[in-house]
Amino acid sequence: MAARIIDGAAVAKKLRQKMAEQIAAQRLTPGLAVVLVGENPASQVYVRNKGRAAEEIGMKSWTHTLAAETTQAQLLDLIAKLNRDPAVHGILVQLPLPKQIDAQAVIAAIDPAKDVDGFHPINAGKLSLGLPAFVPCTPQGCMILIREAESNLSGLKALVLGRSNIVGKPVAQLLLQADCTVTIAHSRTKDLAEECRAADILVAAIGKPDFVKGGWIKPGAIVIDVGINRIDDPANPGKTRLIGDVDFAGASVKAGAITPVPGGVGPMTIACLLKNTLQAASGDMGHA
Length: 288
Ligand code: NDP
What we know:
The chain is 40% helix and 17% strand. With 288 residues, the protein is of the alpha/beta class.
């Protein structure tokens, strides 16, 4: 039987509508400052989308665009100003940063109470301790989509493919908090296919197009495809298209529920950024 498609765009839209209503009802003016260093085209698109999405639901947003040659000291100076600004509730520094800047030092300079990306060591530490924290946006979005497919995750076997600080590790923490039995796999994992076949929930976040094959999916599993890979589109010579880390055609005949790429996890990431910003503005640091 074909898998249920988990419509991340629709779930994200509903979440944004709910937030817009809350902002209007409580007369809040959440403020999100987005910092972009350099001219990475993908980053420019992400930053524009984040600012637009914030304004659409009644938030204020500021984009600080700095030259590619910006020094670490100059960037830290801007972060210090944003930390002090009471109108700014959330600060996001778009990654990657140019190589003269130490991203970890910049993340650590953000006030943890304004760290709406959830990357600050304080928030990462609190998440691993199970304390209220800003939860990174993509992992938070993954959990909301998993719960769309299955509300009771207790005891399910979850496999997280990828162990990055921004996706794999925090997703694994959240699945653990949801009482799943969690395995984290990575490039050194032996017999990945077998690990996948045992998983009731599979979260793929490795950045390799169509890497996870349909035959690796446990029948009925929930498959969350975080990967965003731009490939040449064979149907449209000269054009590109986005695909995930999972072979969607093969997996969707085995899985119980699956996210598409695009239209799955991607839209949830921005919605959860807004959710964190709203939490920062209302002083509410609850979990996803
Ligand atoms: P990273 O490159 O930081 O991490 C990739 C992870 O995948 C690593 O842990 C790596 O293992 C593992 N990996 C790489 N190759 C293999 C392999 N052959 N077998 C098993 N594991 C492998 O990526 P991110 O976590 O930042 O992003 C992952 C994907 O998710 C990318 O496609 C990215 O574009 C996408 N993404 C999507 C977002 C969204 O909003 N939808 C947001 C963020 C990311 P090891 O540690 O051993 O090297």
